[in-house]
Amino acid sequence: MKAGIRSYGAYIPKYLVKREDIAKAWDFPSIPGTKAVANYDEDSLTMAVEAGLDCLKGVDEKTVDGLFFASTTSPYLEKSSSSIIATALDLREDIVTMDFTNSLKAGTSALIAAADMVAAGKAKNILVIASDMRNPEPVSMYEYVFGDAAAAFLVSADDYLLEIVDYVSRTEDLVGPWRRAKDDFVRQYSGKYDDLAGYAYNTVAAIKALAAKTKIELAKISQACIYGGDPRAPVGIAKQTGISPKAVCDTLFQTLGDTGTAQVFMTLIAALKRPKGETILLAGYGDGADVILLKVIDKQKIKDLKRTRRAYMIYSAMTETVDVYTKYLVFRNSLKKEPFKRKTTPVGLHRDGNFVLRMHGVKCKKCGTVQYPIWRSCIEPKCMTTGQLDEVKLQKTGKIFTFTLDHLEGGDYYETPIPRCVIDLEGGGRVLLNMTDGNPKDVVIGMDVEMTFRKIHEGENFYNYYWKCRPIRERAIGEEDESAAPKREEAPMPAQEEM
Amino acid sequence: MVRQGIRDRVAIIGAGYTKFGELYNKGVEDLLVESVGDALKDAGIQKTDIQAGWVGIQYWFNGLSGGTLADAIKLYGIPMTHVENYCASGMDAFRNACYSVAAGVNEIALACGVEKLTDQGSRGLPGFTELGHPVLPLPSAPAMFSMAATRCFHEYGWTKEDLARVAVKNHANGAAHPKAHFRKAVTLDEVMRAPMISDPLGRYDCCAMSDGSAALIITTPELAPSYVKNGNFVVVKANAVATYTNTPWYTPSFPYTNFWSTTKAAELAYKEAGVKDPRKEISLAEVHDCFTITELVNCEDLGFCDRGKAPEELKKGTFNWDGAIPVNASGGLKCFGHPIGATGCRMLVELTKQLQGKADGKQVKDPKLGLAHNLGGAFTVAAITILGKPK
To answer: Tell me, which fold does domain B11-122+210-231 have in CATH?
Structure first.
């Protein structure tokens, strides 16, 4: 196929909940490890923007011809998330945007669709983002399991690191995990039956079908990224298909949990940390299975790319703040807090889209001042010229000029005090942004910050998104940080019977 | 540019105000009836002598349009206008009334202000979820001003204790004022230990959510002697208002150590009043102290001391009620609270009584020229009025 993965990006939220804290709260037996949980102002959509920004580093966003968003937890049931994400990423308007939802394999399905479209010559670059924030019922097994994260691939016609060689897809109706529109939490009837008749049966069948179709020898697969609802499941699949258990890649369950549609994407990105061999297999499961064969094209590029990608946060995730379980319950509104609302208007927000979502400003032709938002006249009292302002894209990093720690932030009391920061952006423009994911004690004048896309409030019962700032999250860059990466132990989940 | 200023063309013949505080059992009507009644009594006239009225109100829940004033005092058939201009609403109502008298349109006009904040809960000024852009951050009032404090700490090395001294001074003054909301002195230690509102501003750094109303009756200096015994009335020497952006946090050159609107309004007011050296000529000032940091920066913007030196002067006693330039001898917003629309008029009532030598609180010794100042919005609008003795 003339299509491949040219770039990747990932996002892991700041907070990790210790599974032992969940166990302690309810006096239940624990399983080891942590799981990533999105902050109160995040959802699948905002995490997707983060992964997208990471993926597009060094790529001209105006060359992207499509955006596919995959998630079982799109914040809207009717309304496209991909269009909001595309706008926040400042993509063109004449592009194709699609939402792939409702199935755990939506991520791999979106990848297949993008590959076909690119291979058919209908598009040159399609950004595929899988993001999930599945809501487990408090005091349930899923509460230990579900983690939140997002991952993105740029599927391109040329210049790719990995070629998408071929794929096989199959579908089967089976009530595995499900959630109706009116349900708050993901449900499951019989985990074991689903594991056997749904997950194992379909994944194995699709892998075997792919082998038959492409004539590859499964024993020679060098890296297998197989979805697993528990950390041991992928090895079980390998054993049934003849894939070497050594080729099976870490699903990051120990640190992040089961990240839903994003899981196999995250697994692949993590595997690219140490690429080995030539053939990679990607298997997504959910109401059937998608299995994709990838061929390594450019090892050097893989190596180069990872130095610039936030995705490598995956390796430093263990060093981030581990916060308490009760906070997580508040984030997910399991304690039923009144949602924060502000007066809002979708009409005005649509009109302001270029500075609200795209974060554009203007530059004065007369005095040269770069400024935010999009004014008709220059804001500087020394100039004030009307009609001489050019719209410009603002950079998403800057330094704090002044700030306060607000203990009274109107209505939104999850994390007080809230640092409110006046920021001089790199390349010009001054903005006021609330800080999230930061420790208020660390905020000082001159501090470097970066923008992050967040859910601000739910006025008029829609999601009002905007940008916040946060301390720059350090990358665990390249090889030199490898020693600092935590050792990953085999996660001892309650033993699954061999299938 | 100014064709003819306001200097010596308007006289205050009546000044009245309510007690300020948590007046839960009084509404806007009660407060206006009291303050306007007090001013009418002071002027010795009937309400039907008033030919036009202006009322400063900031918040929509306090009343709409001029009918709020007409209905409250039951005075119908004349022009009544609602002025809304942030914390300068009351003083801007006064400015408009002055212009009508100076223009020769009215002989007797009423300027008043009122606000009932305690109807709206106590978690800071209401409205921050209803106003402004749907998602762009809109900081609360304490948050805006604390960003100035943070910057001043950084630039000048000011400390939280420097801020606290403003509260200590103003509370000491307010303790003596029968109309003040808070009549209790506080110690430096109490101020420092108070709960944080918006870092570095704690509870005593912030003015309170209070109710109140104040009113002024004005006429021409020629007519004033027929209303006020012994010619002991005061005249307007200057009115100035300067407006800048609602969102200074988007202005790359905004310094946060200097409020442009105050500086500009001061320049205009001093010019109109013929004040060359405010440090020598201004006998006392009511300076907007919604927050302790506001008073310090404003004192510099008003030219009362050099840049960065306000805390030093404060410590030396320059701004004490018996100092070189008494600032907020009444107790200021710190002790009266800040019923938005009422504050500007309340300051003018204070100055009038001070200049007449009949202050209700601490009487400044033999004042000649008094300055009142409001700063509203996000450092957006400053209004200054200078009052003095008739020529």
So the answer is: Peroxisomal Thiolase; Chain A, domain 1 (3.40.47)
